[in-house]
Amino acid sequence: MPEATSLRISQVGLRGIVGHGLTASHVLDFAAAFGSFLDKPGKVIIGRDPRSSGVMMREGVVAGLLACGHEVVDLGVVSTPIIQHSIRRLDAAGGISIGASHNAAEWNALKFFGRHGAYLSSAEAGELLDIYHLRKFDFLDWRGIGALRHDPAAVDCYLDDVSAAFDLNRLSRFRVLVDCTNGTSGEILRRMNERFGTSFILINEARDGRAFAHEPSTTQKMAALQLAPLIRPIGADAGFLFDIDSDRVAFATEAGEAASEELVLVLIADELLERGPGRLVITSISTTALLDEVAAARGGEVIRVAVGRQPATDALSNYPADSIAVLGEGTGAVMMPRFRFVYDGIVSMLAILSLMDRRGLKLSEIIGAYPRYSILKGKIPLETHRIPEMLYEIESRFSDGIRNTTDGLRIDWPGKWFHVRVSQTEPLVRVICESRGDPPRALFDQVMDLVRSYSL
Amino acid sequence: MSRVHQLKISVSGIRGVVGEFLTPNLACAFAQAFGTYVGPGPVVIGRDTRSSGEMIEHAVTCGLLAAGCEVVKAGIAPTPTIQVHVAEIHARGGIAVTASHNPPEYNALKLFNREGLFFNHYERSELLDLYHQSQFRQAANDEIRRVVTDTASAPQRHIARVLAHVDVDRIRARGFRVALDGVNGAGSLMSVHFLREVLGCELHAISVDPSQPFPREAEPRAEVLGELQALIRQTGADAAFAQDPDGDRLAVGDETGRILDNDDVLALAVDCALRRRKGPVVVNLTTSAVIDDIAARHGCAVFRAPVGEANVVERMKAAGAIIGGEGSNGGIIFPVVQYCRDSYMGMAFLLDRMAETGQTMSELAATLPAYHRRLGKLPFEHGRLGQMMQALERTFPGAQVDRSDGLKLTLPGGWIHLRASNTEPILRVAAEARTQEQLEELYAKASSVA
């Protein structure tokens, strides 16, 4: 990607390559806008992932928030879910997570949270952006400036709540290999081993600010490369791989097979529909159709919204909280009602281990019992101005299917579908194509060729 | 015309009322310009105790890191201590977050080069151009360096440098009873340690809590040191010291409870320095002729520089001065410690001299020739300044004229110096004469023109 276009300011926050698009002044302006947006007086919880640029961004965030009169509680290097947990625990007005999650080390980003650690709604995020663009910040004079403090108890308080939701004593019988990708999950799991006797075997545990052992994406490809080959040699019951801020996860079975990232949500929906009162599974229109089959078997219903965290967050408010079983995406990002609808990779892993424990089955046996689906994913560089024309042509070529334009274009046939959409984070068109049984190679190639004919 | 300068970005750096005017965004951008200018390497940052200090410190750290500098945080520290630390650790530069003697609603950045000195005139305008061009160095993730916090070394190094020039045993042996007003400033804790532990004084201190606001006007003028004077009388102190919030300016009280003229304090320090080694003295244009008298006793020359620490320091370096300072501002600059105004060297010199001679502070002051001085302010209108200065020159025919900073007219019995303030739309007037009558005549004549 051209460096000059790395900066992206959207409802999800601020994101870019540090020094090549994302600068200190963006960070300060955004922190000041958020400090102006939040109720005063109020605490603001901040934390960061281990990237070197995180310290620079932390300093700017602290300055902007203090200037607006907020008390700032810095948790240091912690996972995003722990920041959200601490916002609730300390009854703070909001919080900021400094970290670029599944992006490479040179990237960084700010994510914003409101009261109770909730993601901002579209309306709130829009207001924050307006304040940012107007640059009229609510700075107080010398009498009103806030103070900074630290809170070393954040990880333990989070683990107290986690241990109340899962029987860690029973789960400790599993030998679990974890690839921490040099991110924030290492400290949490090491502490869990110390306090609860769990058996997480950690690789790539050391935090590193400059380079990660591998690309921090929670995909089947990455799990196959890094994690799966080690599982059988050490005799693990399962393997998990976290992104840098530990809000999403990928996994591999005891047989050393990396699983599709789509299966994280499927497994957790399976577990929670069986155990919880909620019946709804909220996901994006790109997630595997296996989810519909598994949900239907457990009496659940799948609701599909546009791709991305923001549409998912907005969907949450459209249903009673106790009617929702789980919400997630096919990327390994899942949130549960028990954990206040926060994307949390650690908790997702524990839910999958709980499922193994209750069924008394191996991970490969659980997955093997599901009907077989094959999914193909591709991406093609984009020529922006021809997108509507392209979507129109694809739609007219496949007029025999059921058309869905919630986000890009999805066409469905019995046992088969494809989805074409424009990425929100990169100048790309993404194509996803799935069928029950064998890979839909012919359909996939046909759609890819069509898209390619409009690309650069 | 009555506009107060709530924000000033100039060759002196950046200074303003925190909140609406001096924002963290501005401080961050200025720090990034500074970091771009000095280059990727360590930069020392410290601050005084005003309530906005922590916030501005974070903004400055952000800007420095973004420019690829390593940040060495000295925490709450006097300005001279920060300057010494820059030189000691061979940093690329330093930033003191302090508005010095300005009221608590202000803050500012003082900028130092790799020797720990104020930027010279050329460096300052280069930096300002860089700031205005906004073409900053933008460090990528693998070029961003760490933050090191070291609050202990800077005071230790500064005190060690000061002690090399006085006889500590002789001071300790006297067990002086000393009163101190720290204005709850950056020097509070260091001064208590320095006077009580290092110099063995029986210390009676007020306003030495850095967590509290300034209890009095920040500039240690005699008019605002009533509490310290009462403390002298109450405790029978041999000497009294008062600092400003960033510990560069020093006021001195004697055992009778009188606050000495700042020019006389500088004169005593000049005497101490020239007793150790002969050489030139540099002071600003507004500093008293008592300095010339003292230097003459040692057979040494005096040079004058425009007002402002940076100007005095520049001239001192050029002249190879033994000591220098700004009399009216209460600043003593002793370059073998560091080219900066240093209240600690001032305290050490005076206590050492008392220990050496057995004289009281008032007796030491009495050895100085007596002058009568008056400082004042006159309002002026933009565009009228030149005419006023010309009229003044005509009023004092035969005076020796110096136009290097405003207008200074030296007459046989005294002198008068007028200059426009950098921070307010006023004319600062300083006058000095041998007798009170001469002084009043001089001042009245000058005022009539304005």
What does this structure look like?
The complex is a heterodimer of chains A (456) and B (450). Chain A folds into four domains: 3-152, Alpha-D-Glucose-1,6-Bisphosphate, subunit A, domain 3 (Alpha-D-Glucose-1,6-Bisphosphate, Chain A, domain 3); 156-250, 3-Layer(aba) Sandwich (Alpha-D-Glucose-1,6-Bisphosphate, Chain A, domain 3), CATH 3.40.120; 263-368, Alpha-D-Glucose-1,6-Bisphosphate, subunit A, domain 3 (Alpha-D-Glucose-1,6-Bisphosphate, Chain A, domain 3, 3-Layer(aba) Sandwich); 373-452, TATA-Binding Protein (2-Layer Sandwich), CATH 3.30.310. Helices cover 37% and strands 23% of the residues of chain A. Chain A contains 15 helices and 20 strands. Chain A has helices spanning 24-37, 53-67, 80-89, 122-134, 154-165, 168-171, 185-196, 220-234, 263-275, 290-297, 309-316, 345-359, 363-368, 387-397, 441-452, and strands spanning 8-10, 13-17, 43-48, 71-77, 94-98, 107-113, 148-150, 175-179, 199-203, 238-242, 249-253, 280-284, 301-305, 324-328, 334-335, 373-381, 402-404, 409-413, 416-422, 428-436. The longest helix of chain A is centred in the first third of the chain and has 15 residues, at 53-67. Chain A is globular and about 65 Å long. The mean pLDDT of chain A is 94. Chain B has 450 residues and is of the alpha/beta class. Chain B has three domains: 7-153, Alpha-D-Glucose-1,6-Bisphosphate, Chain A, domain 3; 164-366, Alpha-D-Glucose-1,6-Bisphosphate, subunit A, domain 3 (Alpha-D-Glucose-1,6-Bisphosphate, Chain A, domain 3, 3-Layer(aba) Sandwich), CATH 3.40.120.10; 372-449, Alpha-D-phosphohexomutase, C-terminal domain (TATA-Binding Protein, 2-Layer Sandwich), CATH 3.30.310. Chain B has 15 helices and 20 strands. Chain B has a seven-stranded mixed β-sheet, sandwiched between helices. In chain B, strands 16-20-19-18-17 form a five-stranded antiparallel β-sheet, covered by helices on one side. Chain B has a four-stranded mixed β-sheet with strand order 9-8-10-11, with helices on both faces. In chain B, strand 12, helix 10 and strand 13 (302-305) form a beta-alpha-beta unit. In chain B, helix 1 (24-38) crosses helix 4 (121-133) and helix 6 (168-174) crosses helix 12. The longest helix of chain B has 15 residues, at 24-38. Chain B is globular, with a radius of gyration of 22 Å.
